[in-house]
Design a protein that fits this description.
alpha+beta; Alpha-Beta Plaits; elongated
């Protein structure tokens, strides 16, 4: 269900201010499945989940063979709000 955590400056600010964490999840996963996966993986209590579906961006580049067009992969992102006092440390496994 959970593919990887989103670690950016914007998500770090959300984590510090509102105790929210971002994850890239499977496109077919629903909120209940995401909640269960986060709780089992990190041992925390999830209060709320917001999900967003992203379409892939169109990309074009020029190569020796001419113009190559395509698009990036689509993905689904979940913003998970944890109960007060719960924390996820992504850097402990490094």
């Amino acid at each position: 269900m959970i593919k990887k955590p989103v670690i950016t400056e914007k998500m770090t600010a959300l984590t510090e201010g509102l105790n929210r964490y971002g994850f890239v999840v499977d496109t077919n996963a629903n909120k209940l499945q995401i909640k269960e996966a986060v709780e089992n993986m990190y041992g925390v209590t999830v209060e709320n989940i917001n999900t967003m579906n992203y379409k892939g961006k169109h990309k074009t580049r020029y190569t020796k063979a001419g113009w190559v067009q395509g698009r990036t992969n689509k993905f689904k992102k979940a913003i998970v709000t944890l109960a007060e006092g719960d924390v996820i440390d992504f850097y402990s496994n490094i």
